Amino acid sequence: MRKLLVTGSSGLIGSEVVTYFCGAGWRVDGIDNNMRKEFFGPEGDTGWNTERLVKSYCNFRHHEVDMRDRAGVARLVASLKPDAIVHTAAQPSHDLAASRPYDDFDVNAVGTLNLLEAARRGCPESPFVHMSTSNGRLAALSIRRFRRSESGNRAANPLVGSKMRENGPKAIERRARTTFRSPSRRPDVPYQKGRDRQLS
Fold it and tell me: Is residue 181 included in any domain, yes or no?
């Protein structure tokens, strides 16, 4: 049985990834520490979704690991040796990013780096898929601030720089123009009529 590791497995995107691959016969291990409850209070609690996934799929296992815990992430990846990784864990609120910048950076940037390094060491041949949403205005600003130099691509900040290095500016532009096709369960992003379509 093929093995998949999904981070943010109880969130909006992560739980859909779990559902799809469990249905396709993969063994899925999910990482989620329900930090949404801390960020958003009871309305952001994803515990119900973790319980639903555990009860619904015998080929799903939940791991309560904080993406900021470098050693914990490395141990889990080394022990699982997944055939593929889908990284959806994130702090998604732009308001919280402004009011709690260190938490935002630690979860989003440092957590991603911890997982990338764990994958490089523990399962270097496994595909790594990073899925995220982005504020279009911020991404557009990042694209404008992106510049070329003789030494290669550079960006105005480290997180955008890492994404540029991996995917190039077109990938960031595509991320910025993507919206969810269904009403969001995210407490920080209310569903708005007219935003229920994929933009091209």
Answer: no
Class of residue 61 by CB neighbours under 10 A (exposed 0-12, middle 13-18, buried 19+): middle
Q: pTM for the full model? A: 0.68
- Give the CA-trace dihedral at 42, 190, 8, 50, to 10 degrees: 50
| Cβ contact 107:36 at 8 Å | no
| Inside any domain, residue 116 | yes
What angle in degrees, to the nearest 10, is found between the helix axes of 136-145 and 169-176? 160
Angle at 161 (CA atoms; ends 139, 89), nearest 5 degrees: 70
Tens digit of each residue's pLDDT (9 = 90 or more) over 85-118: 999 998 878 788 888 889 889 999 999 999 999 9
CA distance 52 to 15: 10
Task: Say how far apart CA 51 and CA 20 lie, in whole Å.
Answer: 17
The CATH number linked to 105 is 3.40.50.720
Cα–Cα distance measured from residue 126 to residue 106, given in angstroms and rounded to the nearest whole number: 24
Domain that holds residue 27: 3-133
Nearest 5°: phi and psi at 111? -60, -40
